[in-house]
Amino acid sequence: MGNDVSSTTARTLIPLDDSACWQLYNGVNERSEPISFFIAKQTFSVECRRSIQYLKTIRHPNIIKFLTGFKTFADQDSFIADCVHPLANKLNNNDIDSTAKLCLGLYQLSQALEFLHEKASISHNNVCLISLYISLNGIWKLGNFECACRYDNLNKKYLSNLKIIRSEECITPEEDEK
Questions:
Q1: CB burial string 74-113: b at 16+ within 10 A, e below
Q2: C-alpha closest to that of 12 among 85, 112, 91, 106
Q3: In this structure, which CATH number among 1.10.10.60, 1.10.1040.10, 1.10.510.10, 3.60.40.10 belongs to the domain 12-170?
Q4: pLDDT over 70 percentage in the chain
Q5: CA distances from 164 to 76, 82, 158 (A)
Q6: pTM of the model
Q7: Cα–Cα distances in Å, from 147 out to 81, 96, 170?
Q8: PROSITE patterns this protein is in (predicted)?
Q9: What is the Cα–Cα distance from 13 to 66, expressed in whole angstroms?
């Protein structure tokens, strides 16, 4: 796929219930292949750029695959990725119909986290349902890297600065200790 965004067509807005940073659209590229458009919300442009930078450099089958970046007409940072849907939507619609599929998905998530921690020395800092996506072929993928950082930059101040966009379930009690 080339970098020509004008030859792509956004077709459907996909609801991202609690995403503070992104709007998700699914569409097709010039070869009629399904793709996803992640368009940053202006309020969190710094965090969205961080997410894009990580996705540009990280390659793993269980992490959203960055294809190309672009700016919208309103100068919003955005990118095109392999076609995914929010996992929460699939779980709410009972599209994941067996325990075996759930176990496989959790295993895929653990593979992504193992890669981030062991190979890339990156902490995601917001692993929750809104950070999980599912591809068209049923593979679970980790996304939303706006809170991520390398381990050597991870500290309480960094995490507290991101509390506004982090999911409540991801904030550990230790972060609030003095």
A1: eeebbbbbbbbbbbbbbeeeeebeeeeeeeebeebbebbb
A2: 85
A3: 1.10.510.10
A4: 85
A5: 20, 28, 12
A6: 0.86
A7: 19, 28, 11
A8: PROTEIN_KINASE_DOM (PS50011)
A9: 19
